[in-house]
Design brief:
Blueprint lengths: L3 H4 L6 H14 L21 H10 L6 H9 L6 H42 L8 H31 L5 H8 L10 H20 L5 H10 L5
Helix pairs in contact: 2-8, 3-5, 5-6, 6-7
């Protein structure tokens, strides 16, 4: 007797096609091709992290490994405002590098997604074929890397002083699309969900617009 997983290994079924369309609608809400780096427009007025750091660097009586590392880069004998500007610039570069880390992961996701769709477009590959699932798994791996890098950027921005709407700003700047189904079980689940959604749309009652217009005419709306 042929099992359900075996039945979907061959030619792409109509259910699989609809499931893919359903999933693509979700993916379409997200942009994977962003090429911008994090915006460094200035922190909240309630935070002055670089000012505090500059004062600590200036006070040579206070010492630890972190401060000594900063003093190797920023001369404590300089004017405190100069130190503040240099520390702020260093922080900005660090945020930019973290943004680049996210973009690299997003580009890798896009490459895997392109190959994923290219295989599915071939009639001899289904959503659950080993080759397709391999790209789905790799896509999901890069997706986790992007999520981790994005969380790190949120934490770094928080430490620098970007307090207000920090999480939502970064999340909107670097949207990450949903995961792809990477096992046969997940593919079957997606197909069932697509069928249920399709059935619900067909069951929606149609509005009788002519009856509505008749009612308006009877009460004199159009007179």
């Amino acid at each position: 007797m042929t099992t359900a997983p075996q039945m979907i290994r061959g030619k792409v079924t109509s259910h699989a096609k609809r499931a893919l369309v359903h999933h693509n609608k979700i993916l379409g809400r997200y942009a994977l091709s962003s090429s911008s780096t994090p915006s460094i427009t200035g922190p909240s007025k309630h935070s002055h992290s670089w000012e505090r750091s500059a004062k600590m660097v200036k006070n040579v009586d206070v010492t630890n490994k972190y401060l000594e590392h900063i003093r190797d880069v920023h001369d404590p004998s300089m004017h405190i405002k100069t130190i503040e500007d240099e520390i702020r610039g260093t922080m900005g570069k660090a945020l930019g590098k973290q943004g680049d880390k996210i973009l690299r992961a997003l580009r890798s996701m896009q490459q895997e997604l392109d190959q994923y769709h290219a295989l599915i477009d071939q009639q001899n590959h289904s959503l659950s074929s080993p080759a397709v699932l391999k790209h789905a798994q790799q896509y999901n791996l890069y997706r986790e890397q992007a999520k981790t890098a994005r969380w790190e950027l949120i934490v770094h921005r928080q430490a620098v002083g970007f307090i207000v709407n920090n999480h939502s700003f970064v999340s909107n700047k670097y949207p990450i699309s949903p995961a792809l189904p990477e096992t046969e079980e997940e593919v079957l689940k997606l197909e069932r969900k697509s069928e249920e959604t399709e059935g619900q749309e067909e069951e929606k009652p149609k509005v009788n617009m002519s009856g509505q217009l008749d009612w308006w005419q009877r009460v004199g709306r159009w007179r």
